[in-house]
Amino acid sequence: MAGGRSWSGVLGALLLVGGAGPALAHGSERGFVMLLPTGHVMAGGAAAVAASFLAAALIPERAGRAIAAARLRLGTVPAVDPTWTSTLSAVIVLALVAVGFLGYPDPLTNPLPLSIWTVWWVGFPLAHAVFGNLWAYLNPLTGPYRLLDRWLGGELKAAARPLPAGLGYWPAIGGFLLFAWFELVSLKPDEPETLATAVSIYLILSFACLATFGEEDWMGRGDPFAPFFRFVARLSPLVFERRDDGRVAVVLALPGAGLVHAKPMPVTGVAYVLLTLATVSFDGFSKTFTWLSFIGINPLEFPGRSAVTGANTAGLLAAFAVLAGVFFAATAIGWAAAGRPGRYADAAGRAVLSVVPISIAFHLAHYLTALLVNGQYALLAANDPLGLGANLLGLRGMQVTTSFLTSAAGSTRVFAVQTGVIVVGHVVAVVAAHLAAAAVARSRREALAIEAPLAAVMVGYTAFGLWLLSTPTAG
After folding, report:
1. Contact between 122 and 232 (Cβ < 8 Å)
2. Which pLDDT score is estimated for 25?
3. Do 313 and 185 meet the contact criterion of CB atoms below 8 Å apart?
4. Is 73 exposed, middle or buried, given 0-12, 13-18 or 19+ CB atoms closer than 10 A?
5. End-to-end CA distance of the chain
6. Which of 8-22, 29-43, 152-166, 248-262 has the highest mean pLDDT?
7. Tell me, what's the pLDDT at 33?
8. What's the CA gap between 347 and 441, in Å, rounded?
9. C-alpha to C-alpha distance for 108 and 104, rounded to whole angstroms
10. pTM reported for the whole predicted model
11. Which region among 9-18, 90-99, 414-423 has the lowest average model confidence (pLDDT)?
């Protein structure tokens, strides 16, 4: 559904925002999967991930790192100044906010909810996994910040003070948690005026923090979204290297190879990465009959978000705490099994980046149907953003179709794609975890001992993810 100029316009809109949440993005039709042999699918997926662990264990570390370091140069492209692309994004985002306040109140007609929840939050992370760190160029804050600093003669950067090192990634964790709560728990995350207000608050507060702490510190570990996009970009097979002549070399690498060369994350950085996976996992789990029955709600008579606000708030926090507890326990057990004394923070800081493929796999599998359906609504909204009868993209008369979900053949294909995505994501994660363990181990035996408990967690999480796709949901 990418339509040249038209699609790039919608895409540009979504990237600029960065603070809200998606009711629209939850239109996942999952009841049909109960007709499939889901028990066999779960077992097969888990077995595939377990087999990948055994296969990775047989690969010598030197060979594994040589494969990860393989590069193919594709050519060069002109360098782009992110100041201007960011500023253009800011203009588009402000226009979207205005439309959110002044346009149609219907979330499926107003461009703001569709741009944020479908294009930006669903599609944009996937684009990072393919093309690299687009947020560095399309963040709507950094361009205006740089232009203001130039106009002030550099006084803005000179006055910036460092973000206290002791805070680590806690500002980003707090901001992302608020974002997730707004998306998953609040009553009207897709209502245009409410969303426009939330986006405005994010832009104002974030720009103030950017001016206070500077671009490097705030975008490095303070902004709720910049670290997430930066980590997902490490999955991209495209590497861009700036040359002395001002051009940029485009290099092709294995997908996920960027995870191998990343520096170890601090404990708060580990928590941040785990939070990104916990939120999308709880998003799917919170709509299952299992969760609703657990909190005393009849799944067949779902009363709406207001009845589950408190329970879902607690559940969101619990999902984060449980996932963090399991991850740190697994890495600690592996460190102890290897007979290594002292702190295991370095092992955990390296291993956590192997969670990134799982996070983006869950993201794609969970939001796939929303992207396919609401993406069509987004194109129609871009065609007539103010509801004045415009036909900017030539799409007048286009009808939204869901036949690929309602037909048996189409729904089976969608489920097959979702299943494959989750399994492949976990396989990539297991290989990344193996290379991370090898980087801190003194022998192959130690590497296997360090990674085995985490690999077991990944096998279990694969089964959990496939169960989420197959279990009935409500709400």
Report:
1. no
2. 42
3. yes
4. exposed
5. 27
6. 152-166
7. 42
8. 9
9. 9
10. 0.86
11. 9-18
DSSP codes, 32-70? GGGGS-HHHHHHHHHHHHHHHHHHHHHS-HHHHHHHHT-
Instruction: For tokens 């010598």, name the residue.
Output: 60
Strand partners for 250: 75, 240
* Bridge partner list, 251: 73, 239
What string of DSSP letters covers 298-354? -GGG---GGGTHHHHHHHHHHHHHHHHHHHHHHHHHHHHHTT--S--HHHHHHHGGG
How far apart are alpha carbons 104 and 115 in whole angstroms?
A: 14
Rounded Cα gap, residues 71 and 212, in angstroms = 40
- Higher per-residue confidence, 406 vs 32: 406
Length of the chain: 475
pLDDT tens digits, one per residue of 167-221: 999 999 999 999 999 999 999 999 999 999 999 999 999 999 999 999 999 999 9
Q: What is the pLDDT of residue 61?
A: 66
DSSP per-residue string spanning 211-267: HHH-HHHHHHHTSSSHHHHHHHHTT-SEEEEE-TTSEEEEEEE-TTHHHHTPPPPPH
CB 362 within 8 A of CB 285: no
Q: Is the pLDDT of residue 155 over 50?
A: yes
Average predicted confidence (pLDDT) for the chain:
83
The type of residue at 335 is W
- Whether the Cβ atoms of residue 71 and residue 237 lie closer than 8 Å to each other: no
Tokens at 271, concatenated: 């928590």
